[in-house]
């Protein structure tokens, strides 16, 4: 590897010789001294160079110094450089309390001087140049947080002997509904892109895997342009055996989120405060729970009338229930449970004593839905009847219904949008800000 | 949760009352005693029930015992049951040295008695009924090993501050080549499924992410039916900044594999020995390295003539180089380096002193290629020239070439097929055995 100390590691080093490498964030080219803010993947530091503006012929040292000065004067924003220098811890330096005096400097990869985006560029413009947009400390931090969050999720599961699965995204039929489905020519037939791993993570149940998880792509040919929809997104999924109801799924789900948020807080709490300007809150389990019926009442009591006829919450309704949970329970999370069967898929189990309600939930976080979970119907006759009732063709579902014909334990699980969690955890206005490369109806590049 | 002790945890429990749940693997229904082998996600245990073949009217205890006996007699293979009983550690019991005397038994989900596959079913038939096939201890173990391997990979990276990325699988153009590309209608335009995350993991380099990884789906419309090809597969990818050559990538790559294999050996070494019948070997770094030119000589010296004109190895050639590494270095892994530029993609960096060779490698493991890695060409003029030389249109690649115009560190990385690693680590004959749900030209279900 090219020898360098990561900038974040400079603070722990003694004064003296050091190599650093990264890209030029700013150059302050003063008459007597030059300052370069150098950034790498870990942070930013100030380089300092006493300017040499002229040099006599034959004065080799002065010629070299002049060369460095001119090199720095000509540095374009974004240029990647490798610097040998002298580290000095100096608490007067605002940026990190240290600086590196330039000894020698190599331009590794020069940038075109005209940067196509600026701090005030529109989100769409920034996404056009996402690889430059991501150079910001904030964007970098977002994806470090995502890394920590996911790894904590997986570690939670792995420590409990869950099996990680990779379900196929190419399917012979729809996984959820006929709507919003991408289709493609697949040799002599037609394939569809999975809208969720629903069928296949359930398959792990009759397969005797016990508990499984997957963090992977899902696809929806969804023509909407809201701040929380994408045509391709990262879905966080789990499915567990031997549940008694959706309550068991919720108990795991909230523990998982506490584990994930704890890891983020420990590693990046201070950075989040500096960059996003708020204190990152680790939730406490159990999260408050309200039934959908109660949630409707909370919304109505708050003076808002939900503008949908099907009894589900709309985005404003979700915000009101979330606000209620924050106010009365001090919780950013709230489970809304027992959704009407009419607005849930056929594979959700229904109440034994009231088939109009399901053993299901949505999880709301800071005002919006991030996840849907449920106990699944595992009795094949009931499952088939519910499919027919929803207008589905059991013939076409035959391969899926087979999963339930050779023995299957009671089970349940959830699917959760990773970008939604990040967006709401970091108070960002759109999932586009927290997606590496957003995909929407009019966005297929870069 | 439904109360139960996982079968693997029974050995650590004292004798006495216990609940277990799982599916019926076998029933031995003898006249005086019944044995059921019950399996769950963690293992198998023997249930025992003293048979009660008749009961007098009015003798409630005997009636109940008769009921249980009849229930057991009628248990179909695969039926999921929940049992309350009495645990007895007894080393005379071959299966795990313990048994559970049945107190009460509930059929949770009855299986159709006719199982569609048997131990001697063809692989294709087994894949038709994959959810039943996966119930075998061996298949279960494969996916536990996969889970451990992946988690160890990710932990290796996360501990070194790599960023996990989720690159889009929907692209506006080909990521690797025009061949073997799935395409789909995408609103008003056409999208392609990513053949690899190549372009987008490289994007993380000018984005200043430093080091990134991704374990995700990749798609190839590859019509081949070999034991090591699939149309959809899980690709293990990493890309790191500030490399001096492909050697830096290889050093990380071998460390990663050692970390992964160490974790597998620790957790499942004993199980692998029992189920697969061989001792799982943790490799030692550094792995042997030979140039492709040397590899060709090794193959020729072994008396085999490679049947390709382009200078690359063929499968038999790979086997011979692998055999050589095993023989002369005692290593199951071998890096073949410095591939001819003519058989490498345009984005591989070429030797400074010999542009016919690249800073690249393939990693062979137990006779077959599992990975390709390289230092990337990051100088945009050279990259563009190499693309043109390969017959590509720089116009179409414009968005990718832009990544290199605004500053980019020297970098390199690799892509590795997860299923190939597993197949070769477990001496399995096909990736179909180690893929949760295989996808091939004629296989899109279940």
TrEMBL record, chains A, B:
Single Gene Ontology BP annotation: aspartyl-tRNA aminoacylation
Gene that encodes it: aspS
EC number: 6.1.1.12
UniProt-listed Pfam families: tRNA-synt_2, tRNA_anti-codon
Residue ranges annotated for the Aminoacyl-transfer RNA synthetases class-II family profile domain, each copy included: 143-446
Keyword Nucleotide-binding: yes
InterPro entries: Aa-tRNA-synt_II (IPR004364), aa-tRNA-synth_II (IPR006195), aa-tRNA-synth_II/BPL/LPL (IPR045864), Asp-tRNA_synthase_2 (IPR004523), Asp/Asn-tRNA-synth_IIb (IPR002312), NA-bd_OB-fold (IPR012340), NA-bd_OB_tRNA (IPR004365)
Ranges for region Aspartate: 198-201
Binding site for ATP: 369, 417-420
Keywords, sorted A to Z: Aminoacyl-tRNA synthetase, ATP-binding, Cytoplasm, Ligase, Nucleotide-binding, Protein biosynthesis
Residues that coordinate or bind L-aspartate: 176, 220, 372, 376
Reaction(s) catalysed (UniProt annotation): tRNA(Asp) + L-aspartate + ATP = L-aspartyl-tRNA(Asp) + AMP + diphosphate
Protein name, entry field: Aspartate--tRNA ligase
Family listed: Belongs to the class-II aminoacyl-tRNA synthetase family. Type 2 subfamily.
Subunit details: Homodimer.
Main subcellular location: cytoplasm
Broad class of enzyme this protein falls into: ligase
Function: Catalyzes the attachment of L-aspartate to tRNA(Asp) in a two-step reaction: L-aspartate is first activated by ATP to form Asp-AMP and then transferred to the acceptor end of tRNA(Asp).
Keyword Protein biosynthesis belongs to the record: yes
GO cellular component: aminoacyl-tRNA synthetase multienzyme complex; cytosol
Top-level lineage group: Bacteria
Organism classification: Bacteria, Bacillati, Actinomycetota, Actinomycetes, Micrococcales
Location within or outside the cell: Cytoplasm
Single GO molecular function: aspartate-tRNA ligase activity
SUPFAM superfamilies named in the record: Class II aaRS and biotin synthetases, Nucleic acid-binding proteins
């Amino acid at each position: 590897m090219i020898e360098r100390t990561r900038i974040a590691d400079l603070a722990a080093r003694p004064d003296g010789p050091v190599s650093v490498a990264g890209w030029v964030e700013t150059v302050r080219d003063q008459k007597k001294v030059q300052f370069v803010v150098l950034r790498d993947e870990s942070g930013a530091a100030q380089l300092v160079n006493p300017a040499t503006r002229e040099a006599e012929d034959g004065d080799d040292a002065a010629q070299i110094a002049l060369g460095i000065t001119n090199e720095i004067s000509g540095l374009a924003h974004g240029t990647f450089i490798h610097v040998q220098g002298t580290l000095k811890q100096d608490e007067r330096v605002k940026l990190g309390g240290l600086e590196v005096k330039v000894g020698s400097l190599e331009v590794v990869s020069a940038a075109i001087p005209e940067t196509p985006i600026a701090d005030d560029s529109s989100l769409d413009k920034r996404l056009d140049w996402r690889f430059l947009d991501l150079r910001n400390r904030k964007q970098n931090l977002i994806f470090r947080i995502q890394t920590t969050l996911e790894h904590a999720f997986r570690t939670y599961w792995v420590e409990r002997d869950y099996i990680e699965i990779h379900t196929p995204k190419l399917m012979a039929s729809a996984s959820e509904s006929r709507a919003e489905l991408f289709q493609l020519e697949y040799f002599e037939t037609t394939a569809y892109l999975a809208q969720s791993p629903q069928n296949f993570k359930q398959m792990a149940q009759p397969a005797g895997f016990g508990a499984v998880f997957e963090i992977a792509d899902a696809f929806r040919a969804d023509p909407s342009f809201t701040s929380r929809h994408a045509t391709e997104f990262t879905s966080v999924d789990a499915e567990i055996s031997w549940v008694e109801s959706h309550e068991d799924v919720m108990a795991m789900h909230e523990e998982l989120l506490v584990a994930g948020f704890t890891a983020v807080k420990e590693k990046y709490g201070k950075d989040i405060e500096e960059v996003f300007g708020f204190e990152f809150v680790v939730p406490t389990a159990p999260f408050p729970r309200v039934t959908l019926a109660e949630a409707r009442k909370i919304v109505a009591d708050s003076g808002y009338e939900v503008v949908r006829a099907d009894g589900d919450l709309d985005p404003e309704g979700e915000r009101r229930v979330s606000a209620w949970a924050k106010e009365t329970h001090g919780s950013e999370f709230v489970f809304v449970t027992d959704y009407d069967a009419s607005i849930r898929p056929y594979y959700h189990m229904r109440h034994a004593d009231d088939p109009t309600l399901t053993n299901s939930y949505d999880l709301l976080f800071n005002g919006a839905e991030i996840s849907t979970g449920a106990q699944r119907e595992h009795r094949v006759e009931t499952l088939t009847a519910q499919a027919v009732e929803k207008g589905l063709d059991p013939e076409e579902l035959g391969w899926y219904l087979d999963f339930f014909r050779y023995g299957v334990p009671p089970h349940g699980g959830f699917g959760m949008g990773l970008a939604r969690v990040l967006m709401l955890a970091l108070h960002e206005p759109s999932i586009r800000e927290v997606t590496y490369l957003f995909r929407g109806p009019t966005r297929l590049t870069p």
